[in-house]
Amino acid sequence: MASTATSLLPLPTEPSPVSDALGQPVPGWAPDAAQAADTASLLDQAWTPRQPGVLSAAVVHAVASGWDDPQLARWLAAKLADHSLAGSAVGWLVADVAQGAHQGEPQRRAVPWAVAASLVSEAAAGPIGLFAGPVSLAAACARPGPRGTALITAHKATLLAHVTGQAAPGGHDAVAATALDDMAHAKRRAVWVDRLAQWADCRDETKARAFVEPKFRVHLLQGGIDGAQRAVCRGLDVGIPHELIAQSLILAAAERLWRCDPQGDADPAVIHGRADLEAVFLLCASVRQLRGRIDTASWLDLLLFATGQVAGLAPLDLPEAQRPALPEPAALHQTWDHGPEIAKIVGHLHAGRGIQAVAVLRAYFLLALPEQPLCAQLREAMLADRRADTLAAARGMAMGLAAIDEFMAAAGHPHRELILAAATASLCAPLPQRTSLQLAEAAWQRRHIGFFRHGVLST
Q: What is the mean pLDDT of the chain?
């Protein structure tokens, strides 16, 4: 995905002070004072050639020239809308980056904004429209389907609106709409739809103290779609607090991602794979974060929908006898200096050594070293360019950032390290490329049949 910018203007005699997102000089981009005075015009000029390195340099220059996060967010949001990208993984990532940069250290804002801008530029240069090419076909056939995609998009639009200061387009109406459901989900939904209002006010604090999350998670992972949704319905019937069920669903999605069978992922006959697991993890994170932002009955409906998505991906698991345990914590010196240990984790992540990164990560937590600096460094590391495909790269980055948020939200849970472990391993795993013919077949099956062949997934 990463590209090298070619010269648009005569090369400057002195090295350009502007660098791209990786910190390397970009040849041919040396804006003069007149261009710098009109930053919006400069950005638009950099956008036109569709060269991400050049655009990254312009974004870095815009930050240095005083553009704030709302200005950058509004400019990128307009590009997303112009090229129908808001509902894609690229659009989701822009919202995450906007939120993170807005809350981060001012002097480090340029890099995430440059990464987001370059991804939008690459995605906009590709084919747009249903069945127009591999990227749009992947969006058409991937889990979590149209309803899940609308849900994530509505959540991310709200995050972006907080930064831009503009209303989120469409609000959450699309999230609660049932018109996007496939027939199988609509049939299952009929079982619980009349009980949503009752569950909204049903809460028993004694059940919170008695709730054994790992046992509940087994039902979500091994009960099939119907069994997992029945378990959630029973939990709601007896008053288990909603936030505990949502947290268990996040952990189930992370465990499913950790269990992903690399053989099936590499088999061209199996259309679903790690990409779908990452998208469903993003879906579950969006559902949990939407709690309290929409009415409770609608939120519970979405919770059950996401439960079915996690359960439905069980065919992608490794066989039980082959499922790996989390690696043993790496041997680290007892120390209060967390900097070198964080550097080891980030170094392994950049080098694609997922298991080693997880081993050091587990040792870091075992030594009870501070989490805030670790998460801050991981946020930057998640934005590295590791995948050749723009959509896959954006989805991986968004998934990694969501994993950090969910890890922090699960404070106190003894198994929460699984969330970061699964995301780290997934980012480092090889991702297969699907042909347009395979993607077209998957999209057609979802649209007209509602299930996939080759033994993978029945919705």
A: 79
